[in-house]
Design a protein that fits this description.
Pfam families: Formyl_trans_N
Family: Belongs to the GART family.
Number of domains: 2
CATH class of the largest domain: Alpha Beta
EC number: 2.1.2.2
Largest sheet: 8 strands, mixed
Bound molecules: glycinamide ribonucleotide
Enzyme class: transferase
Order of helices and strands: EHEHEHEHEHEEHEEE
Strand content: 15-25%
Pathway: Purine metabolism; IMP biosynthesis via de novo pathway; N(2)-formyl-N(1)-(5-phospho-D-ribosyl)glycinamide from N(1)-(5-phospho-D-ribosyl)glycinamide (10-formyl THF route): step 1/1
Oligomer: single chain
Structural class: alpha/beta
Strand order of the largest sheet: 3-2-1-4-5-6-7-10
Number of strands: 10
CATH superfamily of the largest domain: Formyl transferase, N-terminal domain
CATH topology of the largest domain: Rossmann fold
Helix content: 25-40%
């Protein structure tokens, strides 16, 4: 009997360039199947990308909920209609409640634009420049209740160049994001990397670190 393709629900808030990379990879490899894209912002540009790709989309506007708990409960109800194997945050700019995170623990994945544990939170590229680091990058990790923590699935790095601004760094990091997120999700979906009692086991077959110009 053939195993079914792992299913994925993707949460977004905005542009959706990582979503686009994840869609392309799914089309090219069939490593996972995207069953829905959900945005907390009605005008997120990523929704149009998802629709063009023929995916189910939904909007759950967080401003219509009186508390973080109420929003997260409604979001979980919506997600659970799809029974996804994986829940993937792709630029989903909401802090999630502990209850929500625990409901999807071990199958909730995020991408963060820094080399965690350095520079959690917002404005990571500005934080990196202010700290004077010489290398910077991106992390794919499993989500735990502590913000921007959790077992690291993959990282990619680049050199900070003289004259870099938050914008130039962001653009180069984003190109790395598009390379590592699909690969990391495939490795999780295939079981090549597994979460065992909150720790990751297994390795990616490609080098974990990419140094690019
Ligand atoms: C990406 O850079 C992603 O790493 C970041 O938001 C951007 C979304 O861009 N996520 C976070 O900062 C989460 N803490 P996209 O909508 O084009 O994928």
């Amino acid at each position: 009997m053939q195993n079914s393709t792992p299913s994925v629900v993707i949460l977004i808030s905005g542009r959706g360039s990582n979503l686009n990379a994840l869609i392309d990879h799914a089309k090219q490899t069939g490593a996972y199947q995207i069953c829905a894209v959900i945005s907390n912002r009605p005008n997120a540009a990523g929704l149009a990308l998802a629709k063009t790709a023929g995916l189910d989309t939904a909007v759950l506007d967080h401003t219509e909920y009186e508390s973080r708990e109420a929003f997260d409960a409604a979001l979980a109800d919506l997600i659970d209609e799809y029974q996804p194997d994986w829940l993937v945050l792709a630029g989903f700019m909401r802090v999630l409640t502990e209850g929500f995170v625990n409901r999807y623990l071990g199958r909730l994945v995020n991408i963060h634009p820094s080399l965690l544990p350095a520079f959690p939170g917002l404005k990571t590229h500005q934080q990196a420049l202010e700290a004077g680091v010489r290398v910077h990058g991106v992390t794919v990790h499993l989500v735990t209740p502590e913000l921007d923590h959790g077992p690291i699935v993959d990282q990619a790095m680049l050199l900070v160049l003289p004259g870099d601004t938050p914008e130039t760094l962001a653009a180069r990091v984003l190109a790395l994001e598009h390379q590592i997120y699909p690969r990391a999700l495939s490795a999780l979906a295939s079981g090549q990397i597994k979460s065992v009692n909150g720790r990751l086991e297994g390795t990616l077959t490609l080098p974990l670190i990419h140094a690019i110009k």
